Amino acid sequence: MSEKRYDYIILGNSTAAVAAVEAIRSADADGTLAVVSDQPNHVYSPPLITYVLSGKIAEDKLYTRPRDFYEQLSADTYFGVPVTQVKPEAHQVVLASGATLGYGKLLLATGGTPIVPPLPGVELQGVFTFTRHDDMVRVREFIQGNRVAQAVVIGGGMIGVKVAEAFAALGLETTIVELVDRVLAQALDETGSAMAKRALEAAGVRVLTGSGVTSIGGSDGKVQSVTLDSGSRLPAQIVVVAVGVRPNVQLAHEAGLAVNRGVLVDDHLRTSAADVYAAGDVAEAYDPLIGEARPIAIWPAASLQGEAAGLNMAGQDAAYDGSIPMNSIQVCGLPTISVGLIAPPDGCETLEYRSPDGKSYRRMFIVGDRIVGAIFVGDIDRAGIITGLIRGAIDVSSFREKLIQRDLGLLSLPKQYRKHIVSGPGIEV
Question: What is the pLDDT of residues 277-286, one digit of tens each?
């Protein structure tokens, strides 16, 4: 089979990949371009799949670009075709179909893979992960085709919480089982998590924290129960495993690229192999708050990285100066946002506000004269201003007392700082 060559090949079809395609075309209107993805779907927003499952939004609202997006940008697509090998020295990728594609520049935007612990019974029918459109379709079809009344979600992170919310909206008796002492532990502190837990319980979700799952039980090949480390058993006809996602680095590792938790990249998103770049959840890029590289699996970072990688692939000079962790999730109608560090570092100052009715909570962490983290629950209106101050590493010493006030606004800040502020954190999960 003859090899087809492209100036640019992008592996993946989510946020980082789309940003890279658009960036490449902004700098190079004529170079040949291909997008390869093991998913068969058009460009969609993964955070919205739980809303489709619950019926909150129509499925056609998932898609973030016009149906002819790739045609408009003169990009060939290879969808539903996994890549089995990357050959950096030959500048080739090998597809599961047996085809070989040559490239001038390659972007790895392969995202992450759900972590599935080796629990007895995890292979039973009715046990799912939930990170992709295909997962949503399989879960929906399983619920429609079986007598499902009770659901267990293993994991109380962002994915687990949103899946549990969707199940409850469908009328299922739903339980979250979380190993650590609170839900959303990577996004909220103890107070914020307690507020999120109350919102879940008000929506009919049972939340068990500090509990581990030892096995999944079944009969005739289908799931029937979940057994906890306490010995108690929860009836369940469907189980979703949502204990985390790890960067999908297998292709990069097998190709000999430098890999840690994610694919290692420099400040131009270049990997250790010539003409190979990485962006999005698969990449391990710089976090300015901790001063080192780590995967940051959020779509604003993926978008920025994809844009910078695409520009650099097309011959521009676009330095990527890092991203800070940001999470935004609405828990059964309760909006939350966290930015930067959410656990108090040594020697930090903490500013905190709780509304008298218990519906609003804000907390900020200050090291020296700079904010390094913030949590907003309930009232999130001023989160954008604080995010801008964190991003810009702005000295807040002259207006520190105003930071926690409800009426904080741009006019509350000294004039010289206003230009640094980005209005709105720009994320929705």
Answer: 999 999 998 7
Strand 283-287 versus strand 292-294 pairing type: antiparallel
pLDDT in tens, 365-413: 999 899 999 999 998 888 888 888 888 888 888 888 788 876 665 655 6
- pTM higher than 0.70, yes or no? yes
Distances (CA, A) of 3 to 25, 88, 91, 177: 24, 15, 11, 50
Compute the distance between CA of residue 399 and CA of residue 247 in angstroms, rounded to an integer.
Answer: 40
Phi, psi (degrees; rounded to nearest 5) at 360 = -135, 140
Contacts of 60 (CB under 8 A, 6+ apart): none
Q: Given this model, what pLDDT does residue 287 score?
A: 80
Residue numbers of the chain with a pLDDT score lower than 70: 1-2, 406-429
**C-alpha triplet 15, 19, 22: angle, nearest 5°:** 145
Q: Give residue 2's pLDDT.
A: 61
